[in-house]
Amino acid sequence: AEEEGFDAEEVDGELAAAGAGPLPVLAVVGRPNVGKSTLVNRILGRREAVVEDRPGVTRDRVSYEAEWAGRRFKVVDTGGWEQDVLGIDASVAAQAEFAISTADAVVFVVDAVVGPTDTDTAVVRLLRKSGKPVVLCANKVDGPSTEADATYLWSLGLGEPHPVSALHGRGTGDMLDAVLEALPDAPPETFAAVTGGPRRIALIGRPNVGKSSLLNKVAGEERVVVNEEAGTTRDPVDELIQLGDRIWKFVDTAGIRRRVHLQEGADYYASLRTAAALEKAEAAVVLIDVTEPISVQDTRIISMAVDAGRALVIAYNKWDTLDEERRFYLEREIERDLVQVQWAPRVNVSARTGRHMEKLVPALETALAGWESRVPTGKLNAFLGELVASHPHPIRGGKQPRILFGTQAGTRPPRFVLFASGFLEAGYRRFVERRLREEFGFAGTPIQVSVRVRE
Ligand code: GDP
Ligand code: GDP
């Protein structure tokens, strides 16, 4: 097709080279100062040609494309997350949660010279529960004299510690071989890809926002489906509920119905449950309690849903309690804290009175439609051509990077690959993403934009 001088065959070739499908994701987690960033740089070998920018709700995160022994994968650097806001333990836990919910394998970095700390063992518990493959990196083993330090890390129960010096490169090759063994060839097809059967919804939110009340309300007023659909497997913790003319599966409801109170680490378990529910779901309904200010915990749960790549609906619950004053502040909190997910359909509900329950289904349908939508390559490139002409990238160092062409590499959620003649600044990438949304919609779905720089 004649698209702004793009040659269809060339696009196909580039796409094949880029690997049109998603790459397996490796997350690097560990305490501050154990050497995560050093290790990530070592893995990339300074080949930082590709930078992916996925704005989260509360932070930006960057993933890089890496290659080892001919296999390509993405490395996510979790260093420096929110340490100021959350404190060290919480930020390390957030990394682990992220790894659990979105990575295909994890490199857990421990400072072998310092040995395992309490924070390390807390993360180990999370990682082991998750069942995700973990490669244990015993870092800062710079020479034979510190080799013995690595063996102490067997005590973590994560299998063989790989002695590594991220700084000098010692041992990193052997560790990367172990990483390749741990990584799937391609990310496992999510449940979402196994189509047919009811749509799967995760009802999530921090404790006491009204999850159990909402579930009871929707299940109570509508018919609860007891019969199994032919060909669908039903997990006892999932609930089939008919809403409108469709049957929906609310996944992982056991933790919602039965309130488990754990004295210690209750937050950890709540997060794990959220991650597990997201893993099984196609769409998330995140409940926010309007009686309280929007909290870091709320935005983190939304981030988890966005990072997991799920369709998203935000339900503001307990609307029956709202007075004028609280409503005023709520709208300001939403503008301030949730501006990055303003694409998510919003419903103002009351699980107590049943207010606006009927709006839940249309919101979910909108979000799922956006999640599955596809922009034809021709249309996308016509749009990109105009965009580049009207809003060129700023000139940097005498050069002007240009988007050459793009394609939608996948759906659920929509994923785009842009090919560019040079490095695109984060601000420009965000601008492109914003314009993509303005042009094509994508209500209720995160979108992922990655950039490949052609050498
Ligand atoms: P992060 O906070 O986990 O990302 O840690 P950094 O990568 O920033 O490293 C923290 C410090 O440890 C830096 O001063 C690094 O130079 C140092 N470091 C990282 N890896 C090694 C290593 O293998 N050996 C030694 N001796 N120092 C290291
Ligand atoms: P969960 O921990 O998220 O499952 O929350 P629950 O469903 O147990 O609800 C926590 C508390 O909020 C209970 O006391 C509910 O009665 C109350 N609640 C839930 N939804 C509403 C609502 O829409 N309006 C009001 N006023 N209270 C609600």
From TrEMBL:
Positions of GTP 1 binding: 30-37, 77-81, 139-142
UniProt key word Transcription regulation: no
Coiled-coil ranges (or none): none
InterPro entries the record matches: AAA+_ATPase, G_ENGA, GTP-bd, GTPase_Der, KH_dom-like, KH_dom-like_a/b, P-loop_NTPase, Small_GTP-bd
All copies of domain EngA-type G, residue ranges: 24-187, 199-372
Keyword annotations of the record: GTP-binding, Nucleotide-binding, Repeat, Ribosome biogenesis
Binding site for GTP 2: 205-212, 252-256, 317-320
Gene3D superfamilies named among the record's database cross-references: 3.30.300.20, P-loop containing nucleotide triphosphate hydrolases (3.40.50.300)
Superkingdom: Bacteria
Keyword Nucleotide-binding on entry: yes
GO biological process: ribosome biogenesis
PANTHER family, per database record: GTPASE DER
Subunit structure: Associates with the 50S ribosomal subunit.
Entries under NCBIfam families matching the protein: GTPase_EngA, PRK03003.1, small_GTP
Protein name from the UniProt record: GTPase Der
Organism of provenance: Streptomyces lonarensis
Gene: der
